[in-house]
Every structure is written in C-alpha cells, then in structure tokens.
Automatic annotation (TrEMBL):
GO molecular function: (3R)-hydroxyacyl-[acyl-carrier-protein] dehydratase activity
Source organism of the structure: Roseiflexus castenholzii (strain DSM 13941 / HLO8)
SUPFAM superfamilies to which the protein is assigned, alphabetical: Thioesterase/thiol ester dehydrase-isomerase (SSF54637)
Protein name: N-terminal of MaoC-like dehydratase domain-containing protein
Domain of life from the UniProt record: Bacteria
Length: 284
C-alpha cells in the first residue's frame, strides 16, 4: 500500500448517532475517584465524557487481531500492526446534555508517514464534530499512530519522584486491571493491549497492560474539574510514552491564568503524557 493509496482515505466520512444516556454517564462516574456527583438527566455532560458515547459498532467477525475494527473501512489500511492513541485537540463549544440524542460526524483529515526513534510511524488524523439539537457542541481532532513491531519495551524502573511544582494539584493513580477493564468497557474498546496480558507482552512487546491514553486524559481532566470552578473550553494532549499497569503513576496539574498545564508522570519520573486545559470565564 503506497502513500498515494493511503491518501485516498483522506476525506472519508462516517456518521454515528447516539442518545447521551444517563446510565452510561452513571457508569463513567462510578469508575472515577473521588466519585464525582452523579450526572443527572438534562444536566451537562462533563468534558471528555463524550468518549463514552458514539461507540464502535463493528460486528465481532470484523474485528482485527488487535481487537480494533479491521482497517480499510473508515480507518485506512495502514500496514503497521501496533496501534496507539497519540493525542488529541478538543474545543468545547457547548456541553452535551444528558438524556438527549446527538450525532457525531467523523472525517479522515490526514495520513502521514514519519520516521521515529522507535522506527517507521504512520499517523492518522481523524476529525470529529458532535452536534445536539442542531448546535455544534464539540470539535475534536485525534491522532492515531501505527508503528512497526520493534524491540520489546522494558518495564520502567521506579525512582524517587521529585517534589511537584509549588501550587500544583497532584494525584497518584494505581492503574489496576479493574480500572483498565472498566475504561475499555465504557468505550467499547476491544484493543487487547489494555486487558489481554499475554497478547500485550508476547505479541506487542509491552512489559504489562497499557493504560489508555484517553483514560489518563480523563483522569487529568477530573483533577482540573475537582479544583476549578470554571468551564473548560479546550483541551489538548500528547502521549509521549506508554504507562503500564505495573506501578502507580502521578498526575500533576499546574494552574495558570486561563489554563492548567497537566502532566502524567511515569514511575520512572519521565513525562508520559502532557496536556493543557483551557478555562473559560467563571460562571456566577
Ligand atoms: C485508546 C487506544 C490506544 C491507547 O490508548 S495506547 C496508549 C496511549 N498512547 C501511548 O502510550 C503512546 C505513547 N507514545 C509513544 O509510545 C511514542 O511517542 C511513539 C508514538 C511510539 C513515537 O515515538 P518515537 O520515539 O518513535 O517518535 P519520535 O519522538 O522520534 O517522533 C517522530 C515523529 O513523530 C511525531 N510524534 C511523536 N509522537 C507523537 C505524538 N504523540 N503525537 C503526534 N506526533 C508525534 C514527532 O513530532 C516526530 O515528527 P517530526 O515531524 O518531527 O518528524 C486505542 O487504540 O484506541
């Protein structure tokens, strides 16, 4: 498959409809610590919780070996086997309202091939727009990366972490299998690197189960929501190195004027994911 062949996918679209069901929001709330207030029907869906809706609907027979829907439909047939979520950029225009129907339009915006330290990489940029009652609620761009098998990744060696910056909000997360399972279930994501340890280790070369990038992003967003009483108008993140279920990791949030700088720090002290939450004006 040449770069020109893959470029033929640019512009391909999909549309998914969903009810923003209170039951799904309640299940999402149960996964989080400290538990947020139970989101009620007709209230605003918290930021990033749209990932718990518009779930993939590929029949079982159309799943690939890694558990994702086979490529070549909406997602281009990238030949590299290892899929990861690399990052996203999101604008929140107005909140989705729980208990009302909504729809999401997806479009393949770009397919690029790059050479990384880990070997050849292919990035697929997917644009999403989410509407409810004919109003634009959320715009999102996701970067999905595919890479060649490469060498096995060693387990990170835990170190004594340095103190966080003054004024930072900090939380330590223990990414156990129950948390990873619940996030996979909430997002109907059958990617085996998150729950099938023999597959993650022996087929994809990870030292343990991989923590979903969007899970880490949701946990960072919850840290912001817990400490800030302002609307979130934007969020972006980039996953720089995988986190595993082998050791706790740390979430660090550093507030500035209209933004909060966010980091997920691995047990080895390295930045695994960096993110920024943009804050709107306070509501009175
Ligand atoms: C859900 C779900 C799956 C998951 O959640 S998987 C878990 C979350 N994701 C991760 O853990 C990914 C962590 N990141 C990595 O492992 C590495 O960053 C990655 C993606 C393998 C790339 O590492 P490399 O060392 O090979 O790459 P370089 O740093 O040398 O960069 C080469 C070029 O690529 C660009 N690039 C690198 N990382 C990203 C990124 N995260 N987002 C966008 N672009 C990236 C970098 O800028 C270089 O580009 P140039 O134009 O400068 O060449 C699920 O499957 O649904």
């Amino acid at each position: 498959m040449t770069a020109e062949d893959l470029a033929a996918w640019i512009g391909r679209t999909e549309r998914v409809e969903d009810d923003i069901s209170p039951a799904q929001a309640a299940a999402a709330a149960a996964m989080l610590e400290p538990p947020p207030p139970l989101p009620a029907k007709d209230s605003a869906l918290p930021p990033l919780w749209h990932w718990f809706y518009f779930l993939p609907r590929a029949p079982q027979s159309q799943l690939g070996i890694d558990g994702h829907p086979q490529r070549g439909g909406f997602i281009p047939p990238i030949p590299y086997p290892r899929r990861m979520f690399a990052g996203a950029r999101i604008r929140f225009h107005q909140p989705l309202i729980i208990g009302q129907p909504a729809w999401r339009e997806g479009i393949i915006r770009n397919v690029t091939q790059k050479s990384g330290r880990s070997g050849p990489l292919a990035f697929v940029t997917v644009g999403y727009t989410i509407y409810q009652n004919d109003s634009l609620c959320i715009e999102e761009e996701q970067d999905i990366v595919y890479r060649e098998p490469g060498a096995p990744i060693p387990a990170p060696v835990p170190v004594d972490l340095p103190p966080p910056p003054p004024g930072a909000w900090v939380r330590t997360v223990t990414p156990d299998t129950r948390l990873l399972f619940r996030f996979s279930a909430l997002t109907f994501n059958a990617h085996r690197i998150h729950y099938d340890r023999p597959y993650a280790k022996h087929e994809e070369g990870y030292p343990g189960l991989v923590v979903h990038g969007p899970l880490t992003a949701v946990l960072l967003m919850e840290l912001v929501r817990h400490n800030v009483n302002r609307p979130i108008i934007g969020f972006s993140f980039r996953s720089q190195a995988p986190l595993f279920d082998l050791a706790p990791f740390r979430l660090i949030a550093v507030p500035a004027d209209d933004r909060v700088e966010l980091t997920a720090q691995g047990p080895d002290g390295m930045t695994s994911l960096s993110a920024v939450a943009e804050l709107g004006k306070a509501e009175y």
